[in-house]
Amino acid sequence: MATGNGWYLIGPLIAVGLVCFLGAVFWRMGLQWTLNSTDDDYGLLRPAAVAGDEEAAEEIRQMLADAGIRATLAGPTVLVFAEDLEEARRALKVV
To answer: Which of 23, 39, 77, 81 reaches 20 to 30 Å from 70, CA-CA?
Structure first.
């Protein structure tokens, strides 16, 4: 293919066109998909306890970890998997 007849521009033009198309799609969609979720939607995780601050939440998470329960934090909220929720609440009542 000769470089003098303009065929070398086809690849970059397709790439620019694709980027413009995707930009238009994302611009049209906006961030509306985030409006459907709520602040307390944690997916597979369930809140086991809500502490006053993050340091207290970390202590609670560590107590659950010592009891063999997987836990994580979302600010002052201690989250566990749904199947571990009752066990986590029982472990926290003992303390």
So the answer is: 39
